[in-house]
Structure formats: C-alpha cells, structure tokens
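Appendix B: a complete holo record

For completeness, this appendix reproduces one full record from the ligand-bound portion of the collection. The bound molecule is pyridoxal-5'-phosphate. The inputs are the chain sequence and the ligand SMILES; the output is the full three-dimensional arrangement of the complex, encoded as structure tokens. No fields have been trimmed.
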Amino acid sequence: MQKYSDRVNRLSFSQTFVMSNKVREMKARGIDVISLTLGEPDFDVPHNIKEAAFEAINNNFSHYSPVPGFLDLREAICGKLKRDNSLEYLPSQICVSNGAKQAILNVLAAVINDGDEVILPAPFWVSYDEMVKMMGGTSVFIETSIETDFKMTAEQFENAITPKTKVLLYSSPCNPSGSFYTHEELEQIANVVAKYPQITIISDEIYEYINYDGKHTSIAEFPQVYEQTAVINGMSKAFAMTGWRIGYSACPEWLAKGCEKIQGQMTSGANTMAQKASVTALKTDPAEYRYMIDEFRKRRDLVYGLMKEIPGFRVNYPEAAFYFFPDISFYIGKTLNGTIINDADDFAMFLLDHAHVGAVGGVSFGNPNCIRFSYAASEKDLKEAMRRIRECLEKY
Ligand SMILES: Cc1ncc(COP(=O)(O)O)c(C=O)c1O
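The structure of the chain with pyridoxal-5'-phosphate bound, as generated:
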C-alpha cells in the first residue's frame, strides 16, 4: 500500500546525488571513474577554525544554543556583512541554521502559501525547485542561455511577475553556471522588485568569496529592497566546511522571527561547536583563506583551456564558483554508440559509461542543453577527465 504523503511524492531525489551514487557503484566494481559531480571544496578546514572547535568542546559548549544561534556568532555575522558588503544588520535579524540549505527553506516556509509562485531564473541550484514544491509553492522558470552568460534581464523578470508571485530566488555567484550578477544588473532587478511589495528576494550568496574577476554585490545593498531581501550565506564553500552545517539568513526583523519560529519547531539551534568555530572563521581576515580561491582560479583556467578543445562543447568562461556549464546541444538528437541522446542527462550518463567521467546533466538545473562539471578536484584528475572526454567524443 502507498504510504507516502503527497509532499514526498512531489519530490525527486537530487540528480547530483543520483550521479554521485552511480559513480560510487562503478568504483566499487573496480572501474576507474573520475567524479566531477559534487559541489564541495576539496580542501581541509583551515587550522585555526579546527582549533576553535576543539576549544569549544573543551569549554563544554555542548548544550542547546538559542534557536537563531549564539549571540557572538550572530554579532560576527553582522560584522562580516558590514565588512564585506557594507550592510547593516542587528543580531536580531540573523538566523543561524544547519547550512544555507535550511536557511533558504526557513525563509520559503515563512513566506509562501500553497499555490504561491516563486520565480527561479534558470539554470538554478537543483534544490530550489524541490524546496518550493515541498512548501506547496509553484516555481516559475525564466529561461536563459550561454549567449547571455546564463543571466536573466530585469525585463524578463518583470514579465514573469503575476499577482501570485511571492519570491524571487537565485544564487549569485550561480551554481551551476559560475556567472554572477553585476552591481548594475542587480540594481535594475532591485528597481523592479521595489514596485512589488509582496515579493521577497532570497539572495543566495554562498559562493560570494569564490569570485575571481569582479566585486561581489548583494542585492540587499540597494536601499529600495533592503526590507524585502533575505541574504543567505554560510560556511560550506568559503571555508571548506560543508560537513559542519552552518549557514545563515539576514532578513528584516519580522522575517527573521518567522525563520526562528519554523526552525525552533524543526531542528532547534545549529551544532554548537561548529557555531563557535564559525565565529573564528568569520572574524579572520578573508585574505588568510585566499589560497583556496587562488587554487580554484588556476583550475578554472586549466579546465577552460582544455574544455574548449572538446568537440561539440560550447564553453562559458565562469567568473565565480567552481563549476563549468558547457552547452552540449550539438549532441542532442544524435545517436552515440547506439545510445540516443535526448537531453543533457542522457549525455552525462553517456560520458559516465564511455569516458568514465562523472558530471551532472542540466535537466534538474532547469537547462536540458548543458551539463555541469565541478572543478573542485585535483589538477591531475581534471586534466585526465578532459582528456578522456575529448578522446571519447572525437569519434563522433
Ligand atoms: C547555490 C547553493 N546554495 C546553497 C547550498 C547549500 O549550502 P549548505 O552546505 O550551507 O547547506 C549549495 C550547496 O551546494 C549551493 O550550491
């Protein structure tokens, strides 16, 4: 007998995990697979952050924390937002969560009702659409392509707004495209949002520090939308702390209270030792951790050079995050080695089976013409992966 709720039946497993599980199975069968599927830095957590966690354990920070996080962490987050983004927040506007993922869910849960619309510029992070479904909302997608660097215009955005629109949700820098919105582009989007007071912007800035060529702008910097914006950020990508599960939202006070209410009934305050370690991470000069970004930049340039040589790939030059999102529409509709390629997911599966390189098809990112490669991997693996793909596809 079917036991699942409608809520669970609405959801899909993340394509990223589907592909990485398949890679794991192949590896277990002894196949030499290079996985470029997962979105996490391959660095160790910096030493001073680990030391702070040990100290927190020794000092017995082992009890429940306040639901929105320890006050010193919320103060450190306010300090970071001021230092890096010129944004003024009070600790009462911050809610610390189990990763940015929960922070986004909290905000969605706090503002959308069944049937409300959430605008998602595509490509988007795979979890957004699923989170919207979980909360009973409906996603409205805005298509973009490699020609526009995968970014929507303010005009496209305004055309997608209806009386049911409650949220605009995007990541800048973007997973999966590696693009980011400039100050001018965000200003135009902010000017549109300001005309619609029912809209909340969820601005996911988790890749803020992994930005090679430009200055990061948070849309909350535009005063006309400060009161309508939830800034999302966290420790996972900037400090290679994916498993420590600390993220946060910075919101107008009423929304922060809503997040606290939801989180208080769901999971309570986030892990206490990781919270204490995060205070140290956020108070350290970001220049101390710059070596990770410099390394990512080197790999970006390496992969860009090699990927451009792969037949049938159209490659964007990602300015941020650690992903490539090449357009592989050249192969769609073709039969490769007896396999019909209907979309980018079929193509990703083909590459896994025939080149033994794991990547994620773009369908669940909202773009069936592109596939995502993470370059959070060693130079050796990146070179070998690009060689395998080129050799595999040269035959076609
Ligand atoms: C765009 C984006 N937002 C949020 C997250 C989740 O971050 P966290 O590990 O803090 O939950 C990810 C992780 O891949 C991401 O790519």
